[in-house]
Amino acid sequence: MNTAVIIPAYRESKNIPTLLVRIFKILPKAMIVIVDDSPKEESEKLKKNLRYKNRQMRIICRSKKLGRGSAVIMGLKEALKDNKLQYFFEMDADLAHDPKDFEKFLRKRDEADLIIGSRYLSGSKIINWPARRFILSRIAINTFLKIWLGLHLSDYTNGFRLYNRKAVEFIMKANLREAGFISLSETAYKLKKAGFKISEVPISFTDRKYGKSNAGVRELIKSLIGAIRIRIS
After folding, report:
1. What is the separation of C-alpha 2 from the centre of its chain, rounded to a whole number of angstroms?
2. Distance separating alpha carbons of residues 77 and 12, to the nearest angstrom
3. Rounded CA gap, 42 and 176, in Å?
């Protein structure tokens, strides 16, 4: 009852109903906040398909692709309005993240302010992910970020995370600049520099079955430029 799950989404109407069923099996009383950047018609379709009774659910439709980072910030801001909430999950809408891993995060919730679900720790599993995506993520992007930002994390770019309330309240005041996927690294960097404790847990990661990934070449270039801005600023 003191936990929220923030789900940024873009054209994920086929995946979200399945994801919610899985979430509610593990956290039946969690608040769910979906921030949907899909076109208005698809967002309305999603709303009609998500009629849960006796559930705490918010669906924020922005009708324009404004970036994962800004979607998460908006979702966290909405969840913070409920003073009972103390823990805030962030996860993808495409079924890449398994709610069964919630327990791993929650077991460590008193040990860190931000817990990141890592695809690259011992005990993690990566399922059906193309080799080129794995190489690009682990060797190219995460190696660069480890050298450049120096946080000693194994996975800077995975969006399966658990924040405590103190960390979220800091994020709301941190004047984050990045709106896309690199915002994940910016959030971790600013929390660490402010003295917050960050930890990681191994997770299962499954490549999407429906829809198309937003992590293209253009997003990669924007992320690398954003990473440079993070440290310089």
Report:
1. 18
2. 22
3. 29
Structural domain boundaries of the chain? 3-232
Beta-strand (E) ranges in 14-157?
A: 31-36, 57-61, 87-90, 114-118, 125-127
Alpha-carbon radius of gyration of the chain: 16
What are the φ/ψ torsions at residue 135 (nearest 5 degrees)? Answer: -65, -45
Helices 68-79 & 165-173 angle (0-180, nearest 10): 120
According to CATH, what is the number of the domain 3-232? 3.90.550.10
- Going 16 to 169 to 159 to 224, the CA torsion angle's sign is positive
Which two three-digit tokens encode residue 231? Answer: 């440290």
What is the C-alpha to C-alpha distance for residues 160 and 126, in angstroms, rounded to an integer? 14
Do residues 215 and 132 touch, judged by C-beta distance below 8 A?
no
| Token representation of residue 223 | 């992320």
Joined tokens for residue 176: 């984050």
- Please give the Cα distance from 83 to 142 (Å, whole number): 35
In this predicted model, what pLDDT tens digit does every residue of 150-196 receive, in sequence order? 898 999 999 999 999 999 999 999 988 888 788 999 999 999 999 99
